Amino acid sequence: MRFPLRLPADPPVTFKARLHDARTATAVGRWLGLAFAVCFATGVLSHFFQHPPDWLADRLPSRPYWGYRFTQGLHVISGIAAIPLLLAKLWAVYPRLFAWPPLRSVRHALERASVAVLVAAGVFELFTGLLNTFQWYPWPFSFVPVHFALSWLLIGALMVHLAVKWPEIRSHWTRRSPGTLALPASDGPDRRALLAGVAAAVGAVTLTTAGQSVTALGRLDLFAPRDPAVGPQGLPVNRTAKAAGVTATAVRDWRLSVAGPRPYTLTLDELRALPQYEVTLPIACVEGWSKNARWTGVRVRDLLERAGGGPGTGARVESLEPAGAYRVMEMGREYAQDPLTLLALRLNGEELSPDHGHPARIIAPNRPGVLQTKWVARLEVA
Amino acid sequence: MAYRYAVAGLGLALMGLGGALLVQQPSPWRIALWLAGAVVVHDGLVAPLVIAVAALTGAFGLRLRGVPRAALIVAGSLTAIALPPLLRPGGTANPTVVPLDYLRNWLLTMAAVALAAGLYAGTRAALRGARRRT
Ligand code: HEM
């Protein structure tokens, strides 16, 4: 399909160029649609793992232990992969921006409005998402609720887009579909070369960033905001002890208090004398990076049980840090009772360093990193 | 046909949900401004720039097709994801945040893309030449 370009001024030269057609839009669009669908599904999942509503908190599963690491790694990977795809897609359909007359009917106006929302939300989500992973927030609003709200707007606009374009999508789905065959045959090799270039770009941006969560690709990590190998005790840090306001003096007189029907307190030495377990669990940050580590400590469920918490109890965990959005953390039943969930004292065979939560921190399977509370001061049967 | 209306209807409902979540934010107009800005920056800046590059090279008789175009797409995409760490102002929360030598890595990948494209095009031309001679 050639574009009915009737611009008042001279149309830009390259609009005579090929490939601004519905076959290219379909071929790139379906990969883009897939990337956004994966982003949406994993993003909503992450939202509920991070901020579960009350009815869900005790039902969130603690297994597979690598679940959140996988889905949040995938969220960032598919988001980054969508960047070349979105640019290619918008390049392919760019001449349609100048369709003339701009609005033919009410229906056409609505259709263009939905496309405007789709493009705005698509560009915005990828831009803010990418910058957020670099902890760069140049906007005057808070990232998480806006990114979340726009994801619904985006996925809705995408569904409208698919419904509107369905006849064109269908007639350009394969190389031999009627719409594709109606395009100049000489465009075929050119389009395949373009699509190969876009595929190579997706491969390149994925391979040079995925190493922040995919261990096997660690050596190719060139552009990710984190290097899993960089950090005290071989593990990156988000919030340092200094940033959290946890000082050496606060830690010196540290006692763990466990509240419940039979409350008690423990010193660090008393904790060390309790049965210790070793588990291998990942820190999986909401920002996408993740890394496995070896943790040693006391089972949370043992501590709860000693305070009189039965087999069905969850926990409320408080940190030493004086302030912070995640100072108090609630832990549903599945997590609190999982034998892998520890109040960890050691990391990779050494005493926890201050930035990793000395004297004691939570490590639980299948949970976002912000909920792996550091510098734990108090545990409560909940 | 009925499917199309069902999908469009569900899409509109989800857009409504997203819009409702958005207007509950402290300053929805500012967010709307950023959304509009996203379209303006892409449609008014990024896309015209790409088209200008193509037009300029076209004016010099270079048609951007095949391997050179693919190389530019890859290089452009890598540059796009390298820009945040390269342009990010200010310090980081701690040394494990944004820890790599991104400028060096960017230069390395640009060289690698040029090299790979050159090798690919060269090998193809050589093979074609060999085929023609036999
Ligand atoms: C977030 C994802 C997407 C964005 C931002 C997007 C954006 C756009 C835009 C701006 C247009 C031009 C609309 C117009 O003025 O007519 C368009 C057209 C089109 N899109 Fe999408 N799209 C997306 C996903 C998809 C998907 C998943 C498919 C199909 C698999 C698709 C297939 C098409 C087709 C066939 C056209 C018509 C092209 C033509 O007539 O030349 N799009 N898209």
Automatic annotation (TrEMBL), chain A:
Segments traversing the membrane: 31-50, 70-94, 115-137, 143-164
GO cellular component: membrane
Pfam families: Oxidored_molyb
Keyword entries, A-Z: Membrane, Transmembrane, Transmembrane helix
Record-level GO BP terms: respiratory electron transport chain
Keyword Transmembrane: yes
Domain Oxidoreductase molybdopterin-binding, residue spans: 249-381
A GO molecular-function descriptor: oxidoreductase activity
Keyword Acetylation listed: no
InterPro entries in alphabetical order: Di-haem_cyt_TM, Mopterin_OxRdtase_euk, OxRdtase_Mopterin-bd_dom, OxRdtase_Mopterin-bd_sf
Matches recorded under Gene3D superfamilies: Oxidoreductase, molybdopterin-binding domain
Protein name (Swiss-Prot/TrEMBL): Molybdopterin-binding protein
Origin species: Streptomyces roseus
Taxonomic path: Bacteria, Bacillati, Actinomycetota, Actinomycetes, Kitasatosporales
UniProtKB/TrEMBL annotation, chain B:
Protein name: Uncharacterized protein
Species of origin: Streptomyces roseus
Keyword set, alphabetical order: Membrane, Transmembrane, Transmembrane helix
Residue intervals passing through the bilayer: 32-58, 70-87, 107-127
Organism phylogeny: Bacteria, Bacillati, Actinomycetota, Actinomycetes, Kitasatosporales
